[in-house]
Amino acid sequence: MATISIKDITKSYGKTEVIHGVSLDVADGEFIVIVGPSGCGKSTLLRMVAGLERITGGTIDIGGRVVNELEPRERDIAMVFQNYALYPHMSVFDNMAYGLKIAGQSKAEIKQRVDKAAAMLQIEPYLERKPRALSGGQRQRVAMGRALVRQPAVFLFDEPLSNLDAKLRVQMRLEIKQMQRAVGTTALYVTHDQVEAMTLADRLVVMNGGVAEQIDTPMAVYERPATRFVAGFIGSPAMNILQGSVTDKHFALEGGGTLALEDAGYAEKGRPILFGVRPEHLRLVPAADAVLNLGVTAIETLGADTLAHGKLAGANGVGGELVARLPGSARLSVGDTLPLAIEPGMTHLFDAESGRRL
Amino acid sequence: MEKRVTFDNRLLPYLLLTPQLAVTIVFFFWPAGQALYQSLLLPDPFGLSARFVWFSNFEYLFNDRYYLQSFATTAVFTGFVTLTSMSVALLLAVLADQVIKGAGAYKTLLIWPYAVAPAVAGVMWLFMFQPSIGVLAFYMKAMGFNWNPVLNGSHAMTLVIAAAAWKQISYNFLFFLAGLQAIPKSLIEAAAIDGAGKWHRFRTIIFPLLSPTTFFLLVVNIVYAFFETFGIIHTMTAGGPGQSTTILVYKVFSDGFVGQDLGSSAAQSVILMVVVGVLTVIQFRYIERRVHY
Question: pLDDT digits over A268-277, tens only?
Fold first, then answer.
C-alpha cells in the first residue's frame, strides 16, 4: 500500500510531446480512474508509472520513493493488461505463482497465497488448466489473481475489461471494485469507457490531448465539469452544448433562437459563450412555463426513458440541436413541439474560446 | 465449416494434379525405385552387366569399418552444425529484435549469407583458412596455433562445420526473428513487472514460446546438415584428410562416382533414405508433443 505522487510528468517521442505536464496526488488505498478518448495519453501515463515507458520530464513517486530510474520490478507494482498477457505455456497456478517464485517465496507460502487469491476470484477449479482452456472472463480473473498474489503497493489496470462482452463487463467491474476495497491497495485504472470510470473511481482523471482536464470525484466531474471537453465526455447521452452569447436575461443562439436564463448573470453581455445542459435536466412543462421549445426530429425509446432529439424552435442553419431525456411514459411523435424547462441550477456556461467553465 | 471445392468435370481435378505428380514421380519415386533396385545388384567394373546379389551390398556395408566411421562423422558434423547455427542465429535474432534504429539494415546484412551458394561458401572459407595462403590461417599461425586442416582431421572437421553452420545461420535467424516478433510484447512486460530479469524472461517466457520455431528449425537443420552440405564438403575437403570429413551423403557420391561401386552407393542411398525417414518420424512423434502449449 502506498501513495502515488505524479509531478509535472511529460512524455515525448522524438520531438512530439504527447503528455504535457500531468500532476496527480493519489492517497493510500484510493481508486483513481484515468479516462479519456483514444490517443489522449492515458495508457502512456499508466505505462510510465509502471516503468514500461521512460519518463521524459517530471517525477513519479510511489510510496515516498522517486521511481523515475527504477526498473518495473523494483517499483512494487502489479499490472493487469488489456489482453491479459497470461503466459500461454504455463498453468493458471504457475501464471499466478510466477512473480512469487522469482521473489524467492517458499513453496508453502506460494501455494497459500495463490489458493487464497483463487478462492477470492472463484478460479480454484481451473488452477491446473492452461490459459487457452479458459473463457475470457476466467482469463481476466487469472490476470487479476496474478496481480493480487504479489500484494503490491499499487495495482495498475490498463483497460482490463474492454475485451469482455457487455454483461461480463458489468459483473467484472463490480468484482474489481470489491477486490480493491477488500485488499485496500491503491489503484490506477485506465479506461475509455465513461460508465466504467464513473462507477469505479474514487476520483476521476479526465484526460484529453495529453492534458488532465479535470481531476475530481465522479459526482463533481458530472455536476461541475471544468471544461467543455469534460462536459461532453462524461455523461450519456452527452451534454447539449449550444454556441451563442448572452443578451439581457437571454441566451441568444448563433443560428437564431433564444433561451430564457435566470442565472446568466455571471457572464458579461455580448461575450461569446457555450451553453450546456444535460439531456436529463430538461423536463416537459406547460407551454406557458417553457424556457425553450424543441421541434422533435427523432425519438429513441429506451423503456425507462425516452430520448427526444430535435432542434430548438427558431434556430435556423447549423446548431441548435438538442437531446432531452424524458420519462418513458411521455408519448411523443416526430414533428411535435415540446415545451421544455431546465432544472434550476443545472446549466453550465463555458468560455467559447478556452472552453473553460465560467 | 468445411471448405471444399467441387468440380463438375471429372477429369479436371486429375489434370490439375498432374504437374505436381509428374515432378514427384520423375524426380523422386523413379530415382528412389532405381536406387532400391540397384542396391540389390552388383555391376561389373565396366558397367556392362550386373548380377542380382540380394542384400549382400548391405551386408558388406555394415561390416565396413569406413562406412560405420562415416556414420559417426555424420553424427558429429550434424550435431555441431545444428547446434552452432541455431544458437548463433538465436543470439543474433534476440539482439536484432532489440535494435530500433537501423533494424532493416541489420536484418538485411544478417540474411545475406543465405544467398551464397554452398560451393561458393565452401571456397570462400577454404581461402580464408587455407594453411599457406589463407588470411585467417596466417594470423592463427602467427598466434602460435598449428592450424592445418589439410593434414589434421579435427581441423578439417572444424572448418567444414563452421562453413556449413555459417551458411545456415541466416535462415535460422530469419525464423527466430519472426518467432520473437510474434510473441506479444505485453507478455514480456508482464514478466518484467513480475520481477523477472532479462535472462530469466528469456529462459522462462521467450524460449518456451519459441519452441515451435525451434523444433521446426531443428528438423530443417538436421536435414540440411545431412544432405545439403555436399557442396561445402566437396569444395573444401573432398571428404579428407583420410575419411575425417566424409559424411554419409558424401560417401554415396565418392563410392559411386569416384569409386565406381554403384551397387554399394545405391545401398547407401537407401540406408540414408531410411535414416532420414526414421529421424523425421521420431522428431514429429516424440519431440513435437512437448513443444505445444
Answer: 777 788 888 8
Per-residue pLDDT at B137? 80
Give me the CATH topology for the region B66-291: MetI-like fold (1.10.3720)
Q: Please tell me if residue B184 touches chain A, with a CB cutoff of 8 Å.
A: yes
B203: closest CA of chain A, how far (Å)? 13
- The model scores a pTM over 0.95: no
The predicted structure's pLDDT at residue B88: 94
Sorted by where each begins, the domain ranges of chain B are 66-291
Three-point CA angle B198, B199, B201, nearest 5°: 65
Q: Which CATH superfamily is domain A4-224 in?
A: P-loop containing nucleotide triphosphate hydrolases (3.40.50.300)
Q: Is B196 close to A150, i.e. CB distance below 8 A?
A: no
CA distance A125 to chain B (A): 20
- The Cα–Cα gap between A348 and A222 comes to 11
**Residue B193: which of A50, A83, A88 has the nearest Cβ?**
A50
**A78:B193 CB<8 A:** yes
Torsion from C-alpha of B182, B183, B189, B191, nearest 10 degrees: -170
Give chain B positions within 8 Å (CB) of A91.
none
Vertex B255: Cα angle to B254 and B256 (nearest 5): 95
